[in-house]
Give the backbone structure.
Amino acid sequence: MQDQKDRIVFRQLVRRESGCCTYLLGAADKGEFLLVDPLMDYERFLPAMDSTHSEARIEYVIDTHIHADHLSGVREICLMSGAKMMMHRSAPIPDNFTPLNDGEELNLGGLEVKVLHTPGHAPEHISLLVDKRFLLSGDTLLIRDVGRTDLGRGSNEELYQSLFERLVPLDDGVEVYPGHIGAQHFLSGELSSTIGIEKHLNPVLQLKSFGEFVQYMTEGWPPKPAYHELYVKVNQGLMGLDEAQGNLQKAAIGEA
Ligand SMILES: [Fe+2]
């Protein structure tokens, strides 16, 4: 009998120009898939489903948080695919979405996806623990860094708790897959890490007190992403693309 693990699809899809990471996961034999943090290039995800199932479909689409540095493709993909839009229940968006709760588990053709509310970078931020093996950490825990808290919706207190009370206690062998990698985000180009490696090598996880953490979070950060307030409004569904387009450089729209 084929082992359950053989049927799992887990793909990290990196937009090389921007270092934004989208994740596609599911059970190939059941044809049910989940997309996490997609951009707008829907057609890119279809071959990655790699399913033998005749009716392979994207069942759920999740944004880990309201992004401030690129345009989310969640609404468009849900519209095209009929998938359910999901976010943490506290997400301040007007859409009719399926609210996720901390600790809730989604079952995707036998694949277990556990929701961990990890606020700090943004209040509604969630991380997803997949099959107890892969952590989609969004912008809470990055490789050798953490998500910034100075874009208007962040909280140092919440990020500190999310990191040290929710993520650090996970097993050292849990693999970490972040929301961003690479130079565009002032990060290393490594694609993934583990909780154990980050505990040893991530400078933020070496800090000895909340005071040191606050100092780290408030000093020496690169410039804020251009148009971050506009991106938040569009990704919240509070401003249409057409309206935003007049304010965004064409290049920024093309990248997203
Ligand atoms: Fe973010």
Summary: The helical segments are 45-49, 74-81, 156-167, 195-201, 210-218, 228-236, 241-245, 250-255.
